[in-house]
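Format notes (please read before filing issues)

Several people have asked whether sequences and structure tokens are stored in separate files. They are not. Every record keeps both together, in the order shown below: the sequence lines, then the token lines. Line labels are part of the format and must not be stripped during preprocessing.
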Amino acid sequence: MAFPQTRMRRLRATPGLRDLVRETELRAGQLILPLFVSDTASTQPGGREPIATMPGVQRLSVDAAVEEAREAAALGVAGVMLFGVPAQKDEQGSGAWDEQGAVQLATRAIKQAVPELLVLTDVCLCEYTAHGHCGVLRDDGSVDNDASLQLLARTAVSHAAAGADMVAPSDMMDGRVAAIRAELDGDGFAETPILAYSAKFASAFYGPFREAAGSTPAFGDRRSYQMDYANGREAVREALLDWQEGADMVMVKPALAYGDVIAQVRRATRLPVAAYNVSGEYAMVKAAAAAGYIDERAAVLEILTSLRRAGADTIVTYHAKDAAQWLAHQT
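Then the structure lines:
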């Protein structure tokens, strides 16, 4: 029936009514906090090195990463995702699978200190290669997809051996999920799940992350392996292929401008879907809030809820601790 019999405002009149009919729930237990673990941060005060482009985020020593993990767990955040920032890099990215690497050391320490907190690890070579690309290079400077697979699989196994609850390949090499699944299974880690960065777009929103991780390519760009941001159907194909190769979860990255892609992947797969609320999205909110243009709390909760509404089961976000606190004190 039309107005006046139907009045949509009736169910918006009070907080109790609005809560009663709210369609989308946002909880701290749906959030994952990314952490940058650095080989050199231990030389900084408190083991923390501020990242200029990401206010409130630091490169962390292993001890400082454990502190962050404890705080996240106390707030009800589901887990942390670890990114390594090595002191030394080479052409192969060999630090990625070093048993004494920052990610491996931090994984062991966090799982010992906060065993109930999930530890996810980013599996890629870009933070570890001297050239900053996500795989090894051919003589002509192009990324060699197939030669990179074994190195990525070796990295995933090293993370699982350190105690990671889930490994998350972000490199966008074709076939890497199958290669990682086979290597994990062959090395006794058949129970370790894979969260595939299935639809990772070549995006302008990664700038602050690359500064934080020191992973800007020394030449060229990543458009030959990361996705064209104009393509939605291709993202669904990527997610379906990763599902077929053995992924347990799939991810869309970035998040804020990709709600339509999250929704398409949600409809097309039966897998849990994650969205990565990336560094540039975080930095924009922080800058606008610092300038007084927006209410940071209101904007963050609206953004995260919109990603849940689009279909994300899990959200990787640098806002995780703040959001968890705000959610705990909502009235």
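For reference, the curators noted about this record: The domain at 26-328 is CATH 3.20.20.70 (TIM Barrel). The chain has one domain: 26-328.
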